[in-house]
Design a protein that fits this description.
By secondary structure, this protein is mainly alpha-helical. It has one domain. It has five helices and no strands. Helix 3 packs antiparallel against helix 4. It is flat, with a radius of gyration of 20 Å. It starts with a helix and ends with a helix.
């Protein structure tokens, strides 16, 4: 059991720590840096969208709630109020 834990530790540490050392000395073009900056937003969208469709009774309600949250975000409303506002908005749709 100890050998298995140690092997899993090595596999995890190598894949997480080594890229930081290998990439640290490289100079990337500006277009690649800009592209990589958008990855967290794309990943967040992939994580949120299935929840929009399945968290409420119908997918239309979830999509409307997501659109309402996007409108609030465009107006730079604080995150707490975006989440609370979207919940209240979907509640009144039911």
């Amino acid at each position: 059991m100890i050998m298995l834990i140690f092997a899993l530790f090595l596999a995890t540490i190598i894949t997480r720590i080594m890229p930081a050392f290998l990439v640290g000395g490289l100079n990337f073009p500006q277009w690649l840096i800009t592209l990589l900056n958008y990855i967290p937003y794309a990943a967040l969208g992939v994580l949120i969208f299935p929840g929009l469709l399945s968290a409420v009774e119908t997918p239309v309600q979830g999509i409307l709630g997501g659109l309402f949250a996007m409108i609030l975000a465009l107006f730079r409303v604080p995150l707490f109020f975006i989440v609370s506002g979207a919940i209240v908005f979907v509640y009144f749709l039911i």
